[in-house]
Amino acid sequence: MKVSVLGCGGSSGVPALGGPDGHGQWGACDPAEPRNRRSRASIFLRMEDGCGVLVDTGPDLRAQLLAHGISAFENVIYTHTHADHVSGLDELRGINRQIGKAITAYGTAEVLGELQERFAYVFKPHTTPYFFRAVLDAQPILWGEQVNIGGYAFTLFEQNHGYVTSTGLRCGAFAYSTDVVELPEPSVACLRGVHTWMVDCFQKTPHGAHAWLDRVLEWKALIQPQRVILTHMGAEMDWGWMREHLPPGVEAAWDGMSFELPDPPRAG
Fold first, then answer.
1. Strand partners for 77
2. Is 195 domain-assigned?
3. Is residue 30 part of a domain?
4. Cα separation of 10 and 94, whole Å?
5. Is it true that the peptide bond before 15 is cis, omega within 30 degrees of 0?
6. CATH number of the domain that 119 lies in?
7. d(Cα 96, Cα 130) in Å, to the nearest integer?
8. Residue 48, Cβ density class (10 Å: 0-12 exposed, 13-18 middle, ≥19 buried)
9. Number of domains in the chain
């Protein structure tokens, strides 16, 4: 299984719009360091047999897929419905045209219901081979249950994201937790034994809706993954600072990062 980091930034990206010269607000991030330039958070999983799974469709999706050479997949998981995770949904039309059919969208009933309200046209019946719009088939999931996605076993779990909930995922040796500030005990149990965990770390200081560095380190001590990769990082999280100060076993993601792990188990 190859994990590709399409984007690892917060809702505004890094840099955010504005700045004294109009070329962005960088905060504590060094503009000269390419790995400080972050698009909105999303990942892509590619199994050895070619099965592809996208996680979230943020506003930077088209550029992200082009940058990674990704043009065909049949599955997308939605973690929640905030704009920085769903507003690029229409870009999936190009993928529909490549694969010649609808893409299966996984998420809680609440998340899929809101997507069906906001993007009603995407879930309407279509006539192959014509894709004048993106086309999704909704597949509701329940937290904590094993889900068959492309023939592989995934477990999707509950996360507290401040005023809303979000969905994390466990896929064999890998887990992904974007947009989380608290983890219920069943979700902690789901994460135990994971090898590589990519997790929200928006800033160094406490935040009401996102994990911060000390909280991530507390979770690391509790869950004990071998590798922690920070994502959904804001402008406080400078690449050079993190390289010098993060403890062993903890590292920062960057847009374009990829790594490989064993394929997850096949679904029963």
1. 55, 106
2. yes
3. no
4. 25
5. yes
6. 3.60.15.10
7. 9
8. exposed
9. 1
- Quote the DSSP letter at residue 54: E
> Can you tell me the distance from the alpha carbon of 106 to that of 111, in angstroms, rounded to the nearest whole number?
9
Per residue in 206-235, pLDDT (tens digit) is: 999 999 999 999 999 999 999 999 999 999
What's the domain range around 192? 2-15+35-142+152-260
**Cβ–Cβ < 8 Å for 141, 105:** no
**What digits encode the pLDDT tens for the residues 61-80?**
999 999 999 999 999 999 99
From first CA to last CA, the distance across the chain in angstroms is 18
Judge if the upstream peptide bond of residue 265 is cis by omega within 30 degrees of 0.
no
Residue 88 within any structural domain of the chain: yes
Query: Cα–Cα distances in Å, from 75 out to 112, 151, 210?
Result: 14, 11, 26
> Phi-psi bin for 215: left (phi > 0), alpha (psi -120 to 50), beta?
alpha
Whether 233 is in a domain gets the answer yes
